[in-house]
Amino acid sequence: MNRVAVILTDATKRILWVNQDFEVVTGYSIGEVIGRHPGRILQGPRTEPDAIQRIREGLASGESFKEAITNHRKNGEAYVCTLVIHPIHDADNMLVNYIAFEVNSDKVPNEHRVSVMSLKDRYRTSSLRGLNEIRLFERIKELMLEEELYLNPDLTLRKLSLKLDTNTKYLSQVINHHGGTNFLSFVNGFRIEAIVRRIKNGEFHRHTFFGIAQRCGFKNKSTFYKVFRDITGSTPKAYADKVVSEGVK
User: Which has the closest alpha carbon to 223: 231, 242, 238?
Assistant: First the structure.
């Protein structure tokens, strides 16, 4: 799955909350960044001054905007990313928050395929309801990763909604809006990630590709092969051959 770092600030641009992807991408924990300005944490010697100026102008405009910039992780490593920043207003149209989505351009060169990177999203005209959707989406991803729910081949939207104490319609809406896909494709993305990890670990020497897929939640062989090709751009065998030839770890 694509990692998208999310930063929520107050109207003065001080951080109120970040998601787990932010912690993974930047190396900073949420406790280290609360109350601080994102730019003072992430900008560094390789950050482009003209990009900083455009971000300042974008924030002052009161409109949503997109910008490419070089940021820096906690360990000092520079990385190129694309930012989409939306101002959030309350019912009286008063500015109350900014929400920023950051995708690492080195890892996801086609960031337009990531739903939240579109300026057509409704954050700039939303209330806190939009922020609640983001928090729910982050909770969904946490459950998928921490409890490995995707390994269950019988996982359904209803079962997940019961676990999250919400309804299926709302859950489907949140996954579609923030994941840019439907429930099944969303879950299959986690399954393919797990399969890829197993292939890189050499498990295909001991099991068939479909055998690995079954351990990762797939029930249907043809579905597995189609989804694998759609996500990785190759067949499982071609992917494994590439792993072997390149010595991928």
Answer: 231
